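Input chain follows. Return structure tokens only.
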Amino acid sequence: MEAERLEAQLEAILFTMGEAVELERIAAALEREEEEVRQTLRAMMAKFREEGRGIQIIELDGSFQMCTAADMYETLVKIAHIPKKQVLTEVLLETLSIIAYKQPITRQEIEAIRGVKCDHAVNKLVEYNLVCEVGRLDAPGRPIVFGTTEEFLRSFGVESLEDLPVANQEQIADFKQEAEEEVNRQIK
């Protein structure tokens, strides 16, 4: 049990540090003899190799580092070429919150609330799979109606739309006042 605990501690140290860590520093942190730590690390190195693990521990001039196994580089190159999700800008977050709270909703309704065009924001949210087309209105032009996706729920850590935070009446009154002041500034 103690040997497994030592291995777990070594894994945690090397994973967290992300760079080569001197043997003496590891041994001091674990309050163990350097030779015991060295032997355990070398045993782990052999074990990872034998099991064909995706990670390995390497020894570099008296230091040890956890890194990706060399035969995994091709897999990493494939994943690295997949575009990362972009950070949601203030405009995207504002548009997303309108959709989340008012869904199902059309672009025209979103624009009426925001006061500006929202084509780009809605398209980006669809691209990020946070919003999707949920149908069409039975009205002239049959406008598309949007709603949030399961990815939206996952991304924001809510189980259902009912779990979205509710603004209290005082906050709503403040928002209305700010909006009216903004409109008045634009008119002048």
